[in-house]
Every structure is written in structure tokens, then in C-alpha cells.
Amino acid sequence: MTFSTGSLSIVVIGLGQMGGNMALTLKAAGFAVTGSDVFEQARSRLAAQGLAVVAPDALPASDVYLLSLPTSAHVREVIEQSPGLLSLAPKGSVIVDTSTSDPAVTRELAEKVTAAGLQWLDAPVSGGPKGAASGKLGMLLGGDKTTIARVMPMLEAMSAKRTHVGGPGSGHVVKLANNYLCAAHLLTTAEAVAMAAKAGVDPAACLAGLNSGSGRSAVSEVNFPEWVLSERFDSGFTTGLMRKDLRLARDAAEQLGLPLPLLQAVVDAWHANPEQPTDSDDFNHITTPILAHGSQTEGNQ
């Protein structure tokens, strides 16, 4: 059965920048939404914006439990810790994990969720807080087609693009692959722009050239003009989270016995100096020390 917007109840667990905006977007779309977070400040902030909120020990029965949490450990805690969703969630309800999680943990939890008579969908997202607030996220879906069909009205309200990549855990595998490429592109694009700047080419002109050719990427087309060259650095995604995702990608490759030297080099580069940038800095700040090398131009003026 596919739920209609009016009949689908959703509990959003984790009311940070992503989860809070997703909750408000779903509420605006007509869903019955309740939010929950371990931090009272987060609950108060969303309550002030008109969202129904409850403490974690007072989760109501719901059709869907949408998780937006920092790590796999937090996801495991919400699902397994007594009383967790394994015991609280009504039979047949769907647990949707939008976090960027460890695929091995995801598959383990998905088995337990299914064994408990619930349904699972990993649905990591891209697009940042802005995409969550506008309902224009990108989603990578790992789970059964029947589960996706059940919650499709919710997914359509949250996202501009949805890609089903396989069974449980597959969404998180592809999300880690995506974030690895994003992290690598930030480094390589920064080096390319620094090289051009050192040779006397304006960074904006360099980017325009790159974006007209095969070297372009989402980083050169979006991140650099939006957050790097503007020096706004307010994407809503931290360096610490990207470092975590890179470690997860490296660990996944190691578990598969797959040597990926470029991935390891990117992991090393992002962890080379924990103070520049710090974990709390916007992740686009990884470009700052690289671009500084090209700030003094010489050569072709």
C-alpha cells in the first residue's frame, strides 16, 4: 500500500540543521510530523517554528521513523537501546536512515529491523541544509522496492532526485563513494586554481574555463563559487563530518580487501593538520591553505 500525504505520520529523530529542515519541509507538505532530539535546545528551536516535538523517551507510534543523526553509533543507539525503535515502533512501520552511516552497521541493523517486523530504508542525502529546507535534496536509496513505494510521497516531498542503488546498505555505500569524490575534488580543484593563480590567471576565470571543459565537477561548479571564492564558508557541512565519512570509506575498502591508494592519499590529506581546518570548520575550508600558495602571482600577468 502507498500512503497518501494526509495518512502518513512521520517521526523525525535528530533535529539538527538537516533533520530540523527536513521535518519542517515535510510538515509544510501536509504530513503529520513529530520531531525528537536528545538536546532540549533543538526541540525548543523547532517547537518555536511550529513543529510538534517530544523527548526521546516519549516517541509516539508512527508510520515512518526518519533518522538524521551524526554517526552509525547514534543510529544503533536509537534503534537498539531499550526502549529503542525495535521495541517501540509498530509492526510494519518503516525506519528511514538519512544519515551517512557505516554500510556494515547498516546491513546489520537492517536485518534486526526486518526480523522485528519492521521495514528498512537507508536514504543518505546531499544538498545540505538549503536542500533540506527547500525539499530539493538528492537521495540514494538502499532497500526493497516495495518499501520505497510505501514512502514515496514522503521522499518526493523531501527531494528533487532519488536513485535506488540496491538493497539495504547500498545507499550508504554509494554515499561514501560520493563523499570520497567530493573530498578529492576539493583538493584537486584547489590545486588547479592555485596553479593558475600563481601563473597570473584570475581564479574566477580559471573556474569558468574548467567548467567549460572535462575537468568540471560539482565542486568547481557549485562549491567554489558558492562558498570558497565568496569566502562565505557556510555550507552547513563540517570538516569533522567529511573526515568521518572518509574514514568510513577507507574502512569499507579495507573490509573488502580492496587497495585504493588514491583514497588513502585523500584520507591522509584531510587529516594532515587537524587545526587547519578544525573539525568544526566548514568542510570547504580544506581549500584555504592550498589556495594561499597561489595568492602571490608571478609569470603570466
UniProtKB/TrEMBL annotation:
Residues in 6-phosphogluconate dehydrogenase NADP-binding domain copies: 10-166
Any one GO molecular-function label of the UniProt entry: NAD binding
Database matches in Pfam families: NAD_binding_11, NAD_binding_2
Entry annotated with the keyword NAD: yes
Leader sequence residues: none
3-hydroxyisobutyrate dehydrogenase-like NAD-binding domain span: 169-286
Keywords assigned by UniProt, alphabetized: NAD, Oxidoreductase
Active-site residue numbers: 175
InterPro entries: 6-PGluconate_DH-like_C_sf (IPR008927), 6PGD_dom2 (IPR013328), 6PGDH_NADP-bd (IPR006115), HIBADH-like_NADP-bd (IPR029154), HIBADH-related (IPR015815), NAD(P)-bd_dom_sf (IPR036291)
Name this protein carries in UniProt: NAD(P)-dependent oxidoreductase
Lineage of source species: Bacteria, Pseudomonadati, Pseudomonadota, Gammaproteobacteria, Oceanospirillales
